[in-house]
Structures are given as C-alpha cells and as structure tokens.
Amino acid sequence: MSVRIGCGLSTGPDARIAAIEAGTDARQALEGASADLVIVFCSGAHLATPDATLEGVHEALAPAALVGCGAGGVLGAGREIEGGTAVTVWAAAFDGGGHAETFHAHALPGRQEGEIAVGGMPSAAGASATLLFPDPYSFPADRALADLALTAPGVPVLGGISSARTLDGEAALFLDDTVVTGGAVGAVLHGVEILPCVSQGAAGIGPVLQISAVDGHVIRELDGRPALETLRAAIEGLSQDERELVSGGLLLGVAIDGAHTLQGAHDYLVRGIIGADPEGGTITVGAPVREGQVVRLHTRDAGSADHDLRSALELRSSALGGSAAGALVFTCNGRGQNMFGTPDHDADAVDEELGGAPCSGFFAAGEIGPVGGENFLHGFTATVAVFAGGT
Length: 391
Description:
About 20% of the residues lie in helices and about 40% in strands. It is of the alpha+beta class. The chain folds into 2 domains: about 1-200 and about 305-385, no CATH class; about 200-300, no CATH class. A hairpin with a 2-residue loop joins strand 4 (about 75) and strand 5. Helix 1 (about 15-30) runs parallel beside helix 2 and helix 6 (about 300-320) runs parallel beside helix 8. It is globular and about 65 Å long.
C-alpha cells in the first residue's frame, strides 16, 4: 500500500485560524485524498480554547479519525517550538486498506483495594501499532502498557505523555470531534507499516556487571559483592572525561533481552539511579530488576544523544530504501535547547536522516516506545514512529 503524509505548523495567535492554516498545509501533501488519520498537538493560547483548535482542524481536513493532545512545545515543518503558542497538524491518507480505530481509555478501580485498572482500550491484537497519548494525572500509562503486553504481544506502542493542560487545569486530549478532559486517547492502526525508533541518547561506559541479589527496584549485590561498593569501583575505573559525564547524574542500563551472560551485545533500558544506602550497600533504580540480569553504567550527553538518534534513524531509512512516507516524533521536554544548546535539533535530525519526509510531534512528559520488543515509558528519549509506504 502507499501512504501519503503531510504536516503543517502555525504560530498564529488565534486558535481556530492557526489550526486551519496548519491543517491546510498538511492537506496539500494528500493530493486530494481524504485524511484517514489526523494527529494534532498544540500549546500556548490553544490550551485556552481547545475546542476552537479542534474546530479549525476539522474545517481544514474533515478527518475520518483524529487524536492528539496539549503540549508544552511542538515540532513540525522542520521546527521546534519549545514555548509559546503553536499548533502542528499531521495528516495521513492510507491508500489500499489501512485504517485507524480511535479510542478513549480511562482508569478504573482494580479487583483489589488500592489497585488501578484500565478500561476503554480496544483490542490491538494483530494491529500494526498503537498510538497512545495519556494525561499524566488521571491515567496509569504503565498499567496500560502491561495490559497491552498481555492482550497484544509484539504490537509496538508509541506516543507520549501530554505535557500541558487547559487553563482550567483539565486534560487537553483530542478524540475525533471532542475535547476529552481525562484519561488517555489513542489510535490502533491496522494495515499500516510502521518502524518504531527509540533513541535513549545514552552511551554505555565502564564494565558490564551482573545482578546477583535484588529486591524489586533495590539491587543488593553486583558480581557477588555489595552493589554500592561494586558501582563505586566501576566509577573509579572510568577515564577523567567519563567521570565528568556521570557527575551530572548516574544512569544504569538494564539488559531487557533476557540475557544472563556478560558476553555479547544487549538491549538496555536506561534508568536513573534514584537512591543509595551506604549502610546496606544497596542502590535503587527506576525500574524493577531481576537476579541474573546484566547492567552497565550509562551516560547521557548531547553528543551521544545526537549520534544515537541519527544512527537509529539511518537504520530505519535504509530498511525502507530511503522512502519513508513521514514520521511522528515524541521527544522529551528535557531535550531541546536545554540539552543540545541549539534550536530544532531533533526536528533537523529526523528531517535529514529521513530525507525530508514530513514529520510532526511534541515535547512530552514521558515517551512511549519499544526497546528489545517490549513497550516502556521512557524519559529523555526521542521516540519516532517512521511510516513506510512513501510514493
């Protein structure tokens, strides 16, 4: 099948007019075809009148399906607008049978006291991918990912946590022709080829270690010795440049590919070291871990983040023969100029590595994407959904 994708960006002050402008620009690339799926991200004044934004998008595109959310900043048309008023509109026409099923998911009381469950998620079994945009205050994204792992194993989930709310303090989520004030919105895609790309922007340093005693998030021993002692020894063995990098905050890469060996390459889930107990000799990490898993210190900096993103995108572009139809980009609100020192870094990288394929996205409060075949909620990543089928 072929996929046609267009995107538009407007920083105009009037929410409805700006949405019409961005939607009209996105429509041009569809060459007269109807919009099967439209995705909208907006910031600033749009959060005062989200209904007007939605009205403008529908006026420009009359989409069959629409999802999106409010954001602290947006990406589109090769630019990153990290603050102020902006709207980006991404539109796709799926020629040849692809379609999108939108949904509104919400939190429910679980079977046991204090437990949280998720309702409203459609079946994603056999789907190409699921796009998910949760509100951070009213929806348990981790619970939803765990449920999807059981009901739709192997189906990639991509998206990001909404990073801004309306001026009234409610969620700003878009679902077809409605502004939703809580939960999560998303779309299950069928018959559309997507290559997920999660760039964690971190490089492994120091020795590879193995967890030999653990309790949930608390690592008690590494390589048969107290975890904190082993970690200190690993840091002391780093070069001076590497020590300076980790001084900004320790990160630990946890192998998630089921490996119980120190040999070979591993897929790492990069998490922060959030605590250390000198008396007990333990360290606490931001993810549950298991005995036997392989771990390694990681460092995050602008250089490694740039290289990691470009390398990952280059692989996807090569797999598609350089003919990506377009992309959706969900980048951490801790990246941008704060990390790279220059504007538009991730937007430029996607544009250059995917040959100018149209892309839109937003600065998220947490990014969702697969690593090693499992879907996770990340931080400081750039997660990209690369769409195949360019004409």
